[in-house]
Amino acid sequence: MKNSHIIEAQQFNKKALQEILSAADHIKERTERNLPLDLLKGKILGNLFFVKSMRTNLAFDSAMKRLGGNVSHVDFPETFSSELVGGDFEDTVRVVSSLVDVIVLRHYLSGSAKRAAEVSFVPIINGGDGPAQHPTQALIDLYCIEKLKGGIDGLSIAFIGDLMNSRTIRSLTYFLAKYSGIKIYFASPRVLKIQDDMKEYLRENNIPYHESLDHAEEFKEIVSKADILYLTQIPKDHFTNGTDDYGRSREIFRLTPSTMKIMKKDTYIMHPFPRDYELPVEIDQDPRAVYFDLIKYGQFLRMGLLCRVLGVPVD
Ligand code: CP
Question: Closest residue (by CA) to atom 3 of ligand 1?
């Protein structure tokens, strides 16, 4: 994994996935045993963010600093004077990668991480490229599921909300397809349904899935059956036929204290954040609401990943 770019979920086989998850485990253990964590002393991470980010930017910053390394932030480089007079993306990547040891890139265009990897002198970690992929968030989700459920094989996962534009759900679906006995539910408004290429990928890999569109009763049935409920926001601007459909969709694809009653006792609720109406704060105290635990698991995962791509042993 040393010097590998982390671009998209399809690049990983099961062995590589396990290698990353086990690095996170080693970091978790070191943290819990108060062992030294300064594994990346002297290394510099470049956070190259063309688009706003709170969680990914800050979480990689703190992961690198916890490992004793440093972080240089390049936010919105297109607003810099040098970029405005004709600096191009590839040159920006060449320059930044000459100065740091690893780059986390967030960009508004799909395929940007791959473009960056073609010219970078150091590993590129895709921190989200347009609507395409967000592999590190999905790795965190996968790690959190593994820790909470004791494994991933045999689980049923329900993706709920805006499935059309969620790069995290795309990446996580690709990851889940590598495990056995997985079943996937897609529950969404029709205007935000999962894209056909994802369904085709699942069919090719013999992963059973069920798609439910705009259906309140089916939504409740899915909530009562799935092992993991993975929610996302429903954005208003995708509804062009008046606000009624938006209002109805918001009500259908929402967890409330009453829908929590039909969930199994060991079903977990996840959300990549930021949240909106779909996830009211009233349910935060329920032990099945694990979306804040994701942040903690995310630290171990990001720290482990940085060590792996920089070729620094963690065990
Ligand atoms: N979950 C996530 O990617 O959040 P940010 O957009 O704040 O990085």
Answer: 56
Structure tokens at 308: 């792996």
Q: What is the pLDDT of residues 250-275, one digit of tens each?
A: 999 999 999 999 999 999 999 999 89
Q: Is the CB of 272 under 6 A from ligand 1?
A: yes
For residue 240, give the amino acid letter. Answer: T
Question: Strand pairing of 183-188 and 124-129?
Answer: unpaired
Locate the ligand 1 atom nearest the alpha carbon of residue 106 and give its number: 8
Q: CB of 210 closer than 6 A to ligand 1? A: no
Do 97 and 46 form a contact (C-beta atoms < 8 A)? Answer: yes
Distance between CA atoms of 24 and 45, rounded to whole angstroms? Answer: 18
Is the shortest distance between the CB of 47 and ligand 1 below 6 Å?
no
Does this model's pTM top 0.90? My answer is yes
Q: Token pair of 148, please?
A: 């909470």
Domains plus CATH for the chain?
9-133+298-309 (3.40.50.1370), 135-294 (3.40.50.1370)
